[in-house]
Amino acid sequence: FFSFICSVTNKKPAQASITKVKQFEGSTSFVRRTQWMLEQLRQVNGIDPNRDSPEFDLLFENAFDQWVASTASEKCTFFQVLHHTCQRYLTDKKPEFINCQSKIMGGNSILHSAADSVTSAVQKASQALNERGERLGRAEEKTEELKNSAQQFAETAHKV
User: GO biological process: any one (predicted)?
Assistant: First the structure.
């Protein structure tokens, strides 16, 4: 069956992509089938907002792709993640979400709160790592100074 991944790099500026993967019967691994940059996404079509169905379409700059999620719930979760990712990382052309249930585009969903919490935790961890790196750098400099001082002392002591 096919599955999908919405991923964001940790490089600056961040790059988001949508990847379609396939898992073959009897295998636990996935094979990448197609990948698009988020900027290429033009339209997300939920097909029918009045019924829970797993089918949906994605329209990209130069491609149209039909998808089927494992469940309608998985489709809803993917749409929420995709919508949130588009709002967060696309500044210019945001894709149009059509024929989607209104709960997917809800303003303050649990998903948005969770994503913001994760982002906040990552930022705090990154800041802590940067601070630790700076302290380690200062410690290395101090160690080098002490080493040089010890060498000078040893040379002077050897001469005496």
Answer: exocytosis
The answer to whether the CB of 34 falls within 8 A of the CB of 48 is no
CB 98 within 8 A of CB 46: yes
Query: CA-CA distance, 45 to 15, in Å (whole number)?
Result: 23
Tell me which amino acid residue 158 is: H
Place of tokens 């990948």: 35
Going by CATH, does the domain composed of 2-107 fall within 2.30.29.90? yes
Please, where are the H alpha helices in the chain? 72-89, 110-159
**Where exactly are the structural domains of the chain?**
2-107, 108-159
What is the mean pLDDT for each group of 10 consecutive residues in the chain (160 residues)?
67 83 82 89 92 92 88 88 89 90 61 59 68 80 88 86
Distance in angstroms (rounded) separating the CA atoms of residues 69 and 53 = 9
Amino acid symbol at 138: R
